[in-house]
Model the fold of this input.
Amino acid sequence: MEHGPESSPTNAATGAPQSPPGSSPPDSGGPGHITSAKNWSKATWILLVVLAGALFLDGLDVSMVGVALPSIGADLGLGQSQLQWMVSGYVLGYGGLLLLGGRASDLFGRRRVFLAALAVFGVASVVSAVVDIESVIIALRFVKGVAAAFTVPAGLSIITTTFAEGPARNRALSIYTVCGASGFSLGLVFGGLLTELSWRATLIFPGPLALALLAAGAIVIPRTVTAGFRWAHFDLVGAVTSTGALLVLVFGVVRAPDIGWTDPVTVGALVAAAVLAVAFVITERRHRHPLVRLGLLRSVSLVHANVSAALMFGGYVAFQFVVTLYLQDSLGWSPLSMALAFLPAGLIVAGSALRMDRVLDRVPTQALLVIGFAAFLFGYLLFSRVQPGMGYASFLLPTILLLGLGFAVTFPAVTSQGTAGVSDSEQGLASGLVNTSVQVGGAVMMAVVTAVLSSSSEPNRPGELLGGMTTAIYVVSGLSVVGLVGAIAVIAASRRRHADSVELAG
Done:
């Protein structure tokens, strides 16, 4: 297999990557692999904080703005169809360009891509908070999504090429992914608090933090030798068709609730996405240096991780959307009250950060996915019994606790499984695939649930359930059923293959 542009010389005795002359040793966060999960140096911890911090900001940004949407609409005079683009613009940039971001980090250098994208994210955050023109704010949200599409796969591939596969990588990945999940969960709380001051505070808050991480990252992220770029190595047609397919798909499903699933624009977008996807597959089969090596998709484990990521995040985002509307529009809760209601889930996810590496060392990721999807399923079904007048401890708290458990277990499992066994030269691609699955799953299910709510003939009355709300919760529950059954099926198939191999060996 061809080595990537950032591959390092290997140690003849161990086979592990060896640091170039003058670089940091492996246990200090340099370009070599860290071979022990214990006694990390200060530089290693700072490196992990920078990479995990960027992912934390990505999750934080999405959920904070979601809480602030009513205030933004009231101040700028925007309707629901315009407000949705504050979130959808970010998702379009993020989900549509993740594959390209992953490949760019492999080709142009992970350090260079990560730092440049983090700088763009920080500057766009600050600028978006001081303008009043909705189209400019939405455009800057798109730019921030694009920046996140480059920081996430670059950051994850820095981790997977710095920490040796096994206990060290499991520890790093568990901290990294739980920080991302914590950002999304705790963003609701930060969003509620900041919205009490001003909705602009939710837009500007990630900016200074991103620029601080940029300054630290410029010091601690290791420099590696990058091969000279050649256009022959860059799959331009693949980049255009894959990015175009995802952008058009996300655009179609985001617009569908407003204009209808049978509207020519929606149908045209979905057809165009399918055509571009077919063109992408044909291109990847023929290109000497494809954007996505299709051989990766022969791995049942990798495909399962990506499907599970889409189901997990799609269900959670859709559920949060429904509950947000119910609590604020029907029950009249303030943004801060709603954010505090979700706080237990964020605390569970954050509290698991330093323990999930031990769990990943001892429990197969497929088993963790069974546990995680079971927790999601029971949580959603518990909420489906909600009735007007029920107290928080009865109708929401049990669900929030189960969702916190599900997120804490599932998020690190899909990330670890989606990058395990992948060569260093394709770690950016593998991490890009996982995160693309996450974002596209969230965008698709958000649109589906919105369509369910908007198509209901039941009127929305204060203090009552939203029209179509119960159906929406059952749709979300169905995703967890699919995820749970899929994880069990993969475990069963793996055991059958093992039994067959033992029988043949005997």
